[in-house]
Amino acid sequence: MFELKTESTLGPRPIPYNNVPLISGNIHSISLSQRAVSAGLADSTKTSYGAGILRFNQFCDLMGVAETLRMPADKTLIIGFVGHHMGSKSGSCIKSWLSAIQAWHALAGAPWPTDSKLLKLARKGARIAGTHLKRPQRNPITLAHLLALYSAIDLSNSFHSAVWAVVCVAFWGCRRLGELTV
Q: Which domain of life is it from (predicted)?
């Protein structure tokens, strides 16, 4: 369901939760339902969620938490996970990872401590502690920048032409360079 796109071939391993009712007692039905839910998630979300579940399992391995205690995860375990990464990851990264763990629980039919005030405080603390990790806002590229680049390149050079084309598409199409380059 969730993908992890890294060099490792080991993705997050599913942990069976005993209280999951079988849909009509048919494994094929479960597979179809997971496929339907998976279709509702963007590929980038699946990748991000895969990373979150992997980080949670790595944390549990580090802390010696048995796999049977990871699903459903106790709120203390989840708060410990937040605390472990607080200050070294941005609040939005931790929030994304928690969303992944929550979705993982939902897919398994396991309860999630949504009403935990402590979890909400931990998330807020992670957001505050991670503010130093935010990149400062960058100045926008202006028409003056484009003109300076245009006067410095040789359009008869195919590489320069390609750079100019990408820059123009990024500027006039209101795109980030990361969306256009590899």
A: Eukaryota
